[in-house]
Amino acid sequence: MSYELKQDGKFKFIEEGNGEPLMLLHGLFGALSNFQFLIEHFKKTNKVVVPLLPLLDLDLLHTSVGGLQKFVHKFIEHRNLENIHLLGNSLGGHVALVHILKHPERIKSLILTGSSGLFENGMGDTYPKRGDKEYIRKKTELTFYDPAMATEELVNEVFEITNNRIKAIKIIALAKSAIRNNLGEELSQIKQPTCLIWGNNDTITPPFVAKEFQRLIPNSELHFIDKCGHAPMMEVPTEFNRLLDEFLAKFKTPAAAIQ
Predict the structure, then answer these.
(1) Which residues contact 249 (CB under 8 A, 6 or more apart)?
(2) What CATH number was assigned to the domain covering residues 14-249?
(3) Is 119 within 8 Å of 86 (Cβ atoms)?
C-alpha cells in the first residue's frame, strides 16, 4: 500500500482521511511503511498524519530525542493541528512523551507502543562492525515475535543505514540520547488519557516497562497482545487496530448529542 508523500515547506508527511488528527511517530529503524495497516484502517474515521522524522538529517548536535521533539512541535504548529491523538512506537513514543510534557495544549490523547523513555534493550553493548549483515539480521529479527517478519527488504534497509559511517554515528547518538533521557520522574505530569498497547513478547522494551508506564502515567490503560514483539501495529495489526478503535471511541461525540 503506497501513499502520497506530501511536502509543505521542509516537512514531508503522509496525510490521509478526515476527522480528528491521529498522528503517528515512527521509531529509530522505523519507516512510514510500518503504519500501513493502521493508516488504511483509521483513515476512514480520522485524519491520519505521519511526519517523516529527520532521524538522519539533523546536525549531530541536535540528533537527539529533544531535537526530534522540536521538529515535531514545529510540524504541528506549521500544519496547525488541534485535538491530536498522538501515537508513538519505540523512539517515536519517547518523542511523543517529551512533546506532551513540553506542549500538552494541542494533544487530546496519547498512545504508546513499545516506547522508550524508561528502559530499553538497544543494539546491545557492542555495535557491529560495518558490513556484518548477519548481525543486523539477528537484531532485526529480535524486533518481532515471529522472525519471518524481518524480511530481506527490512534487513537491507537497516543494513544500509548501519553500514554508512555518518548514519551509524547518528543512530548511536539517538540511541544514547534515549537512554540518557529517562522520563520516570516527569510522567506523573501527563494529564491526557493514555493507551499503552504492548507486545507480550517484546524483548526491547519488555512487558515490565509497560507496567511501569501504567503505574507512572495517571490516566492510563494497558493492553498486552500475545505472540507479539516490539512493533504490534506491524505484527498483529488487526488486534492492534481493534484496541485502538476502542480507545478512540471514548472521544467520539454520540450522534444524539449533535444537533
Answers:
(1) none
(2) 3.40.50.1820
(3) no
Kindly give the parts of the chain with pLDDT less than 70: 1, 122-131, 253-259
In angstroms, the CA 64 to CA 50 distance is 19
Dist. CA 230–CA 188, nearest whole Å:
24
For residue 134, count CB atoms less than 10 angstroms from its CB and return exposed for 0-12, middle for 13-18, buried for 19 or more. exposed
The residue ranges of every structural domain in the chain are 14-249
Residue 75 confidence (pLDDT): 98
The dihedral region occupied by 139, where left means phi > 0, alpha psi between -120 and 50, and beta the remainder, is alpha
Q: Alpha-carbon distance 172 to 122, whole Å?
A: 10
The edge-to-edge listing of strands for the beta sheet with 220-225 is 6-8, 11-16, 47-51, 21-25, 84-89, 107-113, 194-199, 220-225
DSSP letters spanning 24-89: EE--TT--GGGGHHHHHHHTTTSEEEEE---TTTS-GGG-SHHHHHHHHHHHHHHHT--SEEEEEE
Question: Cβ distance 86 to 100 under 8 Å?
Answer: yes
What confidence tens digit (pLDDT) does each residue in 119-132 have?
A: 877 644 445 556 68
Number of H helices, E strands in the chain: 9, 8
What is the grid cell recorded at 220?
492510563
The reported pLDDT for the residue numbered 136 is 87
Looking at residue 17, the DSSP 8-state letter turns out to be S
Which helix (H) or strand (E) segment is 108 a member of?
strand 107-113
Instruction: Please give the pLDDT value at position 29.
Output: 80
Is the pTM value of this prediction over 0.85?
Answer: yes
